[in-house]
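Quick one, tokens below. Sequence please?
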């Protein structure tokens, strides 16, 4: 992903929060698709550990896919994998600019993490990844679910997945949130997004909170 200089992430905290709050990622691997195109799977990917400096590079992520999905058989330990996390996004109409001529655009936030993959298919690996995933996702719920009584069910069906550890080697992020527009325009962009319901996440909140950073 190309990182536009004027749309760089305002902080590592914002990058980390986007990944934490939007864990349903694209796992992109080389080849396997029609005509040699990449293979992509949509699946939850969660943070196992951050790097010592608080960033993703040098840290690790965890994910899993269905065993019936042939993508995992295309992977060898150490292969490069791209993890794509999409945050709130939305169309921006020129009606918010209050001048003509103008053109529409799209505000969005996204994080791409390049990683080296390790296939985790040993005894206990599936349960470790699944329970860690549940723990992370339940922290986002108003009331956390206690999985303890369901662990036997997990054990019975966990053979149907294959798990992965992703060691992150590169981070790229774009937070394009009308930073190039005056404050009053950003306010109109946010208001218009709220008026139509922010169907792809609360991009209005990001425009207001992050869009003023230069």
């Amino acid at each position: 992903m190309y990182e536009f200089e004027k749309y760089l992430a305002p902080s590592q905290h914002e990058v980390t929060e986007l990944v934490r709050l939007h864990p349903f990622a694209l796992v992109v691997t080389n080849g396997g698709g029609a005509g040699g195109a990449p293979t992509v799977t949509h699946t939850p990917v969660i943070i196992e550990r951050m790097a010592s400096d608080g960033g993703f590079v040098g840290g690790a992520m965890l994910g899993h896919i269905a065993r019936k999905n042939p993508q995992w058989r295309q992977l060898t330990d150490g292969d490069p994998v791209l993890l794509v996390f999409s945050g709130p996004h939305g169309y921006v109409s020129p009606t918010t600019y209050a001048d003509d001529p103008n053109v529409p655009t799209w505000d969005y936030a996204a994080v791409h993490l390049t990683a080296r993959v390790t296939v985790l298919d040993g005894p206990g690996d599936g349960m470790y990844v699944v329970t860690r995933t549940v723990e992370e996702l339940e922290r986002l719920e108003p009331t956390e679910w206690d999985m303890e009584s369901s662990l036997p069910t997990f054990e019975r069906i966990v053979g149907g997945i294959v798990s992965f550890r992703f060691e992150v080697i590169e981070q790229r992020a774009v937070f394009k949130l009308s930073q190039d527009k005056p404050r009053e325009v950003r306010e109109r962009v946010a208001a218009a997004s709220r008026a139509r319901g922010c169907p792809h996440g609360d991009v209005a909140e990001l425009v207001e909170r992050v869009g003023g950073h230069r």
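The chain has one domain: 5-209. The first strand starts at residue 24 and ends at 29.
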